Amino acid sequence: MLKIPYNLEEILMNSPQTISMTTTTTEDQKVTLKPIIEMKDLTKVFYTQEIETHALRGVNLSINEQDYISISGPSGCGKSTLLSLLGLLDSPTTGKYFINGQDVSDLTVNHRAEIRNQHIGFVFQAFNLIDEISVFDNVALPLRYREPIMSESEIKTKVLASLEKVEMSHRTGHKPNQLSGGQQQRIAIARALVGEPTILLVDEPTGNLDSKNGDAVMDMLAKLNESGVTICMVTHDSRYADMAKRQLHLLDGVIADEFQQ
Ligand code: ADP
Ligand code: MG
Q: Does domain 66-91+108-260 have CATH number 3.40.50.300?
């Protein structure tokens, strides 16, 4: 929505040119959202004994900042493979992959991990939280692996801001197993966001949740996207896939269809 500065009247009276620039800036922002992810003719072949499995057969995908994408399709169509390539957990067989214009198609394992830490936040079906440590320390974990080392006060600021985003600031001292499934998934989302990733990759976020908690987590993802977080989610659930702004349908290793809201 267009935010009108409090001194609008003054601007209007003094300089009509300035106001026309202000309004077009908002329009421009919509048009010029940057592509942060680009995949060109990406393929992935798995070789096991004598069998070749062509899991991805030429994926072309461009993701802009603030996109909310869902990927769905039948079992075996390549969803997990695509997500692990997007998340730099694996490298493609052929094709090109760029993050923020940087070619990341063919990196060493160590370099890939470095770029992954910087750009990717993961949320999995199983929340993968550590029950022995507090919510605060779970969310702080990715920051403690950062180089250069971050000060405790900087970590605290970032952890609390991230918990705030998922409306869980009131549970910093709890252990994950003292929380409901939906709350645990929100903590996992806070952990994924704490390093301010370029994109949040989400794999079946509601798979381990009942429908009430599943709905709450999906509402949270929608809210985060509205606040500017770029999301790419894999889901079997067509009701949830439809909540994304762009819905990709994967079939036999290619993007067969795309629907936009
Ligand atoms: P989905 O997540 O859509 O169910 P996957 O991406 O897991 O599909 O798998 C796509 C295809 O690639 C399937 O035929 C699967 O058996 C195969 N595949 C996935 N991972 C491997 C692997 N590590 N080694 C061999 N084949 C694999
Ligand atoms: Mg899968």
A: yes
Using a 6 Å CB cutoff, which residues line ligand 1?
Answer: 46, 48, 53, 55, 73, 75-81
Respond yes or no on whether the N-terminal peptide bond of residue 148 is cis (omega within 30° of 0): yes
Instruction: Say which residues have a Cβ less than 8 Å from residue 57's Cβ, sequence separation at least 6.
Output: 43, 252, 253, 254
Instruction: Give the C-alpha separation, 175 to 187, whole Å.
Output: 11
pLDDT at 30: 53
249 C-beta neighbours (distance < 10 Å), count = 18
Peptide bond into 142 cis (omega under 30): no
- The domain spans of the chain are 66-91+108-260
- Got the DSSP string for 81-125? HHHHHHTTSS--SEEEEEETTEE-SS--HHHHHHHHHHHEEEE-S
pLDDT tens figures, 8-25 = 333 333 333 333 333 344
Percent of the chain, pLDDT > 70? Answer: 88
- In the chain, % of residues over pLDDT 90: 82
The first and second tokens of residue 35, run together, are 């592509």
Among protein residues, the one with the nearest Cα to ligand 1's atom 27 is 46
So what's the pLDDT on residue 10?
A: 35
76 Cα to the center of ligand 1, angstroms = 6
At 21, give phi and psi (nearest 5°): -65, -40
Q: Over 90: is that where the pLDDT of 156 sits?
A: yes
